[in-house]
């Protein structure tokens, strides 16, 4: 599952255990609860750092659970449940009143890739782990909000093509060159350490979280429209 811990100005959202961190309905609900808690406890200077234990950051939706339904139609129905349940997690990250940093210490595939990409900053381990959108290889279409997120977050048309239409597996340095990842680091520990340093730098700015969230949402209006994260005009707080 996941845990949320606050240390000073930083919230640490951690996917726990040594499995693949498949985004089951239970894990999705746990993530959403943690993000709601972080939002409710946010103050000026708060920052969220998300990471995971083990070899995987997240290997996407729990396809095993979907396939265990038996028939193809039942499997599709279960997959649709996970797709619908995960959309509010993306919306919550876009609406969170604080900067967000993903410290990706291992493999991030499909919805796991999107989970990391939904943060403001995306740091990755270079010595192990890949980013991979597996849908084209699995014969699955992209949900509308997946496509909207990749359009919003990856500026290069050729990079989006390679990720979404070729199913390219990207290591840390490659992802940096393509402008997907902020920086790549030599180990899981150094990736998290770099995320903490960045988080501490951002926390010092003591930004108004509500204003920060609205500016973020204004950067990605189409994505916010698809996931239901409405852009509002907050009142200034002195």
From TrEMBL:
It catalyses: a (3E)-enoyl-CoA = a 4-saturated (2E)-enoyl-CoA; a (3Z)-enoyl-CoA = a 4-saturated (2E)-enoyl-CoA. It comes from the Eukaryota. Pathway: Lipid metabolism; fatty acid beta-oxidation. Its EC number is 5.3.3.8. Keywords: Lipid metabolism. The keyword Lipid metabolism applies. InterPro entries: ClpP/crotonase-like_dom_sf, Enoyl-CoA_hydra/iso. One of its GO terms (cellular component) is peroxisome. This is Delta(3)-Delta(2)-enoyl-CoA isomerase. It comes from Prunus avium. The lineage of its organism: Eukaryota, Viridiplantae, Streptophyta, Embryophyta, Tracheophyta.
């Amino acid at each position: 599952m996941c845990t949320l811990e606050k240390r000073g100005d930083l919230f640490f959202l951690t996917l726990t255990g040594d499995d693949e961190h498949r985004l089951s309905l239970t894990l999705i609900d746990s993530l959403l609860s943690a993000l709601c808690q972080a939002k409710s406890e946010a103050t000026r200077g708060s920052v969220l750092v998300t990471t995971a234990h083990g070899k995987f950051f997240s290997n996407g939706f729990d396809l095993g659970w979907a396939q265990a339904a038996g028939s193809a139609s039942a499997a599709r129905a279960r997959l649709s449940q996970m797709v619908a349940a995960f959309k509010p997690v993306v919306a919550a990250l876009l609406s969170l009143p604080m900067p967000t940093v993903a410290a990706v210490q291992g493999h991030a595939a499909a919805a796991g890739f999107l989970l990391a990409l939904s943060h403001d900053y995306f740091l990755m381990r270079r010595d192990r782990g890949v980013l991979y959108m597996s849908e084209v290889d699995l014969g699955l279409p992209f949900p509308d909000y997946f496509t909207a997120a990749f359009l919003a977050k990856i500026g290069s048309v050729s990079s989006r093509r390679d990720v979404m239409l070729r199913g390219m597996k990207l290591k840390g340095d490659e992802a940096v060159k393509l402008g997907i990842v902020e920086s790549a680091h030599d180990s899981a520990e150094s990736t998290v350490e770099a995320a903490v340093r960045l988080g501490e730098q951002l926390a010092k700015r003591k930004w108004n979280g509500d204003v920060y969230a609205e500016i973020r949402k204004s950067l990605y209006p189409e994505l916010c429209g698809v996931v239901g994260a409405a852009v509002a005009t907050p009142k200034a707080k002195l």
